[in-house]
Amino acid sequence: MNIKNGYSLIFMIITCLLNNSCTKLDTRIDTQLTNKNIEGDYTKVWNFGYASYTYLRNGFSSVDDNLFAAASDEAEQTAPISNAQLFNEGNWSPYNNPDEVFKHHYEGIRAANYFLENSNDYKSFLALNRDTMSDRQKQYKLDVQDIEWLRNENRVLRAYYYLDLAKRYGGVPLVTKTLLLTDDTDLPSASYNDIISFVVSEIDAVKDSLQSDWRTFDVAKAGRITKGAALAIKSQALLYAASPLHNSSNDKSKWENAAKAAREVITLGRYSLHNSYQNLFVIDNTGNSPETIWDIRLGASNALERKNYPIATPGGSSGVTPSQNLVSAYEYKGTPDPNNPYANRDPRLGFSIVTNNSNWNGRIMEMWIGGRDGSNVINSSKTGYYLKKFLNDNLNLVKNETKVRNWIVFRYAGILLNYAEAMNEAFGPDNANGWELTARQAVNLVRSRPGVNMPAVVAAGQGEMREKIKHERQIELAFEDHRYWDLLRWKDAESVLSQPLKGIVVTKNTANSFSYSETTVEKRVFIAPKMYYYPLPYTEIGKSKGKLQQNPGW
Fold first, then answer.
1. Where are the domains of the chain?
2. I need a labelling partner for 135 at 20 to 30 A (CA). Which of 101, 148, 375, 383 fits?
3. What are 185-212's pLDDT values in tens digits?
4. Strand, coil or helix: what is 61?
5. Whole-number Å distance between alpha carbons of 445 and 510
6. pTM for the model
7. Is 139 exposed, middle or buried (0-12, 13-18, 19+ CB in 10 A)?
8. Main-chain phi, psi angles of 406, to 5 degrees
């Protein structure tokens, strides 16, 4: 693989911390970090250290500049031609992958490597032209501490990029230094297990040398890596490594390691469930919630509403629309109502999905044929549903009203479900192994959140609990870019993603009476086993002089 010196060393630092947050940054950065050009300038050193953050991708613009959900069984893209369709129809390849992140992530890795290599002597850099024994000594110490944190954060970011590559491609080249033109840049892939081992070892090396909570230490820097964020990455890495796709022998020790990693986050005692599932994902609640472990700060915008508000709402484009496959998965909390299939259901249905005849955006939603939001309207939903999760209610797009939005990478409910899954596989549903929670108790914590209050899960043994946990992840983490990867790691993708995507056709009978019938929206294709891993980019295969091997089937 040619990861050469062709990447620009002039990292264009965006004007707000962590993708448009509230701290202004210098958009200029020197191309070399040396005593001569630093001269005690903390900002220049910091900008080099921040460069790797600028390669983080938020899940609001994964595919078709929208949620990845349309490439899974969660949703359908409204646009008649979309990149999500390439996934759904099996028409992607090493030449055309709508979710190609290979080069992008290696640029982020290179930025981290470059900073780590060139900031070893940061204390000397920062001491230049400073009298460290004067009144400025305190500021010098603060600057030194911050750069130390930033160096450790870069190791975590590098680990995160490798985990994100591994979940797509499996094994990839492991590059831990800046490659120059004089280096051998034609590198083979390291194994998947080697990548996971690297991720875990990097996090273990720095986890106790990271800031615990930027929000309380310096709110302007919120969104940077914390100890909790690093441990959440480790939890995800070990959960994936223990899963059937990567653990064909079902080695129980891998599940136990995954449970320990999730427990590390839980026992920090720093995180808890937000008091409202409905409100967690809107305005600035994500940035301030005790449930948020790590979020990517995006500032104020209305882009997601413009992309996903119903077409009948001024400024809306319908965008990613939830599937009947997903709607059908929401449990009944009470007695089913034959006249209203959305009544008495898990409240998370109404918090996440706009259904027919519900009140949202200041009006009754008319999904019936002939209604303002119905299938007869050009560019309306193909599934009979619209997205609600993440979208601010009643945002006036005509007047370009905006709200603060952040993308949650990891939250506490997800860690509880990581723990539940790993504990169940390692010890069964009701054996706590001397720890604080059993698998069943962890799932029920998520289900009993205020405002959700779903009844305790009923499962007689490990197998039944396994299916309940899979279901709970599908519902709790809907649209949060977990579903597709969960189906892959469970090796359930060929049975789920090859099923037709379903929608609903609504017919209005009388003023408050409707008939509902399922319809096939799109036939889906998942070709096993090759689609369990992305193909490596054709260009990288060609440049590697035969050292980089293509994934099987591609």
1. 17-59+100-225+533-543
2. 148
3. 889 999 999 999 999 999 999 999 999 9
4. helix
5. 42
6. 0.92
7. middle
8. -130, 145
